[in-house]
Amino acid sequence: MLISTIFNKRKFTLSMILLSIALLAVVPRFLPPYVIISLITVLMYIILTLSWTMFSGSTNYISLATAALFGVGVYTSAVLSGSFPLIVIVVISGVLSFILALLVGSLTLRLKGVYFILFTFGVTALIRNVIQWWETHITLTVGRHVSSPGNDTVYTYMVIIYALTLIFIFLLQNSSYGMALQGIGENEDAAEHIGIDVTRLKVVTFALSAIFMGAAGAVMATRWRYIDPTIAFNPLLSFLPVLMAIFGGTSMLGGPILGAVIFTLLQEYLITEYPYLYMLLMGLTLVIVILYLPGGLLVLVMRLYIRLMIQWAKTRFQWQMLKTRWREEWRPKVSMELAQRRLRLQWRLGRKRR
Amino acid sequence: MIQNLLDILITGLILGGIYALIAVGLTLQYGVGRVLNVSHGEFILVGALSTYTLYVGFGISPLAAIVVITPVLFVIGYILDRMLFNYLRKTSVNADAFSGRSLLASFGLVFVLQNLMLLIWDANLKGYTYLNTSVSIFGALYGLNRLLALGVAVGVSVVFYIFIKSTRLGKAIRSAAEDPLIAQVMAVNVKQVLAICFGLGAAMAGLAGILYSMMFELQPGKGIELTIIAIVVVVFGGLGSISGSLIGGFVLGLVTSIVNFIDPSLSLVAFYLIFILLLLFKPSGILGRQIHAD
């Protein structure tokens, strides 16, 4: 409660969102190209984590279908590459991901808990295997090349998708739908009782969050230039957003972003420094995060911040007390003492003079 | 034609025996402890790869390796539950939150175990031959090792079933699976029982791995496939039902051998398809209790 009353002020969030978008749009023009390339990866993870949080963060339905929804975008982009301008491909990818998510969602969102997690994982694996089987047995070619419009264009597209995702989440969370989603996460039966169409809301939100994943996938395909089913539907892309969101904390918009940024940088560092231990360390981090950071890093930071604020208030209060005591107890005493001394001195001096 | 059918049947039974063992291990971990252990397949591979090392490096036969590997894996599983999942169980708000968190934690374990295996045993395919004299059944030839594996699998399943049905610990396990709170009231040390279940599950995985290594080639990274098989069988038999997963193992073994007969590359696709259809139409499985609404 305390956290939300202090920090979820709409104006603050909105200005932070606009500030981050403006910074991302302007600053990289002055940076070397490799920074832009790593920023693209960071943005990809931010978009995936944010759109994962859009649905799973508030409803507590853990979806492992991110790789499938992202992969659909990647594949659409690869198949259509060259025959349409990029903007059209991105839109088509978003729409296809939306349709897939709508299908998966309407089939599965009746399932609860572990069943939903397993189903989404299974769907991703099924799609990957079917496409792989199709390519090895029917078309007899595995993998495709994608023409790239250059890193700057890719970066611009990613920033635009990032901005759209953020603004969409912001609007969603501040609408009655966001409240309803929160209600589903807290207690689904109660939410149903007060007249929320639970299933429809869940399916639609799940499908809407997929649009951004699909669009990001379509852009990333042009960044990677070569793709095959194992790259496009990499199961790691299902787990990393979950890990990043939980690590950062899903209760605030900044949490997933923070988690994504920290983890992507950590990943880049680990891959270059310890390529063999990389996955092992990621696994260990996942276990440790699940064990000791259930609320996320941002909540931890906020808790520390609040403790600091309380400490600060205490200190100020004590300082005030000290000042009052000085004014009301010590200063009168001291001034009395001084006055007495002065009087005594004057009296002594006066007597001497006489 | 009849020859083919018989072939499919016996191959299916052999596969089914292994599947049943794998699934019983997971049932113990999920049905009783509520930990959907996705790293189950990695435990199977740990068992299989250590059997390989023991056989090729030290000349210890796989049957003797059972005595070494299963207790070690039992202890590892026991410690893992006491250290990791018990802590999660203590700190989660409700059962749903616990199953989600433990699932993610075991996904973490998958990555850890997989890469530890890659560091210890490299990424190459490994296999060894053991008892590969062939035996003829109704005119078709089968490796003795496969029949041995089937025998061990069936034997262990029967022994385990009797253990669960009639011993004191078996009763404690069943009561903890039914209702942990009431079991605790009835003086069952639930924490201990859950840890033992997890350990037994890991030991079963090791045993299945030993049998698996006798017939198939091994490679770190195959674990997730085995996990999927285990999960499909467990869901098929009904979550938490031990007899269900024994029956489900044999049924799905037969299905796999039929699909393999048609087109081996489709077997994974078929598995995922069965899994998804199952979740859609009968998530409670063939022998499972009806899933409660809560």
Secondary structure elements and pairings:
The complex is a heterodimer of chains A (354) and B (294).
Chain A (H helix, E strand, L loop, with lengths): L1 H6 L2 H17 L6 H27 L6 H15 L5 H23 L5 H26 L4 E2 L5 H23 L2 H11 L1 H6 L4 H27 L1 E2 L1 H4 L3 H13 L5 H20 L4 H15 L4 H57 L1
Chain B lengths: L1 H31 L7 H19 L3 H30 L3 H26 L13 E4 L2 E4 H23 L1 H11 L1 H6 L4 H26 L7 H15 L4 H21 L4 H15 L13
Antiparallel strand pairs in B: 1-2
Helix pairs in contact in B: 1-5, 1-8, 1-9, 1-10, 2-3, 2-4, 2-8, 2-9, 3-4, 3-8, 5-6, 5-8, 6-8, 9-10, 9-11
Question: Can you walk me through this structure?
Answer:
The complex is a heterodimer of chains A (354) and B (294). Chain A has 354 residues and is mainly alpha-helical. Chain A has 2 domains: 2-295, no CATH class; 298-354. Chain A is built from 15 helices and 2 strands. In chain A, helix 4 crosses helix 10 (198-224) and helix 4 (66-80) packs across helix 12 (236-248). The termini of chain A are far apart. Chain B has 294 residues and is mostly helical. Mean pLDDT of chain B is 83; it is low at 290-294. Chain B is built from 11 helices and 2 strands, in the order H-H-H-H-E-E-H-H-H-H-H-H-H. Chain B has a domain at 24-122 and 139-222. In chain B, 51% of the residues are buried. Chain B has helices at residues 2-32, 40-58, 62-91, 95-120, 144-166, 168-178, 180-185, 190-215, 223-237, 242-262, 267-281; strands at residues 134-137, 140-143. The chains are: A mainly alpha (354), B mainly alpha (294). The A-B interface holds A 60, 62, 107-108, 111-115, 117-119, 122-123, 125-126, 129-130, 133, 136-137, 235, 239, 242-243, 246, 276-277, 279-280, 282-287, 290-291, 294 and B 36, 84, 87-88, 91, 96-97, 99-101, 103-105, 107-116, 118-119, 224, 228, 231, 235, 265-266, 268-269, 272-273, 275-276, 279-280, 283.
